[in-house]
Design a protein that fits this description.
Elements (H helix, E strand, L loop, with lengths): L3 H41 L2 H46 L1
Helix pairs in contact: 1-2
């Protein structure tokens, strides 16, 4: 019989993976908005201000994409671990 503690560990992995999926999906949905901001900065700012704004936006986008990539990695890892644990618990029964 699958123990309650073991099923809670699997459940925590799945809940964590879903939370990371929400973050990763939010980053993916933010891409069109960010590209729109880049286009707006290019066409509306003077050259000196444009360079400063694009540098700042590029650093922010780099950080956002790194967080999204790490969340995507964490989601895949947690789903893999929880799937493996479920198979192991089924084989023990």
């Amino acid at each position: 019989m699958i123990s309650f503690i073991h099923s809670c560990e699997i459940g925590c992995c799945v809940v964590g993976a879903v939370c990371l999926l929400l973050v990763s999906s939010s980053v993916t949905m933010a891409v069109p908005f960010c590209l729109g901001r880049v286009i707006d900065i290019i066409y509306t700012a003077d050259p000196l201000k444009m360079r400063e704004s694009l540098t700042t936006l590029s650093v922010v986008l780099l950080g956002v994409f790194l967080v999204g990539g790490l969340c995507n990695f964490g989601r895949v890892y947690l789903m893999s671990v929880s799937g493996t644990e479920q198979v192991i618990s089924l084989l023990e029964v």
